Amino acid sequence: MKKYAVLLTFALSLPFPAAAGVLVTDIGGRVAHDGQAAESVQLMAELGDGSSVTLESGAHLVAVDLNSGREYVFSAPGRYRIDKSGPRALDGGKVETVALPASKLPVVKIATGRVAQATLVMRGAQKKPTTQSVSASPLNTAVLTTTPTLLWPANSEASAIHITLLDSAGKLLLQTTVHNVNAFPLPTEAKLQAGGHYVWQARTEREGRPLAEYGGEFSVLKSAEAERLKRFQPTASAEFSRRALYAALLMEAGAKEEARKYWQELRTERPDDPALAKLAQP
Fold first, then answer.
1. Which segments of the chain have a pLDDT < 50?
2. What pLDDT is attached to residue 20?
3. Same domain, 177 and 158
4. Residue 64 lies in a domain
5. What is the pLDDT of residues 62-106, one digit of tens each?
6. Half-sphere exposure (CA, 13 Å, Cβ side) for 69?
7. Which of 49, 66, 89 is nearest to 228 (CA)?
8. Cβ atoms 80, 31 nearer than 8 A
9. I need a labelling partner for 20 at 20 to 30 A (CA). Which of 161, 200, 204, 226 fits?
């Protein structure tokens, strides 16, 4: 197989300062922010220090201080002020405080989409060897394991699928052929490394005639990041707020495909939530 020189350029943001305020991880009912109209607060909104929220009867709000690792549960109607030391009730309400598994978490900027982006350039070929598709996975994302599963659209006409995997330096790590599948778990023999960046390709053909090519680039999370995320991984029966927080942390770490699975699951529970509708999109 002809080798291609591969260049991966990752545009990574510099670290943000410690979070000011709290991140909304669950909301229900009518909640207003700083005297604005009711329902002006949405999921994943950041409520800054010094701001205030008003809960109408029957409303609830859960917010997380990522810097201190504390979760705040607002369940009584009334006005509340967000302070550096934590929210406090202004008219008799009560805020429950719960400790999270860790503190000093990265700032989550869902609105700005602060995730790792990548540009794939392959040189030396007569045609582009990779056709990227939203149906292919992993694609422009970070993964949590060194043995991720490659996915591409099923094609009943394909008699063979030729798979290749290269590292960011263009070194060939894996080359194999599979049949009658559209998923391939990478074996440990591929020797992916935490923190590494990779390019993969699945080239389908029928009796030697090319049909389509799929693939993309991905990275493996660094061990420390993966371990931190593991501490926040919720069970299937976990509260909405904990699953939303985990999805946000995944997204911030660049694991957008894994995050999307959680956003889509949460959206099935709240199909009318506009924030979830946006977050669950491919």
1. 1-19, 112-130, 132
2. 60
3. yes
4. yes
5. 999 999 999 999 999 999 999 999 999 998 788 999 999 998 888
6. 10
7. 66
8. no
9. 226
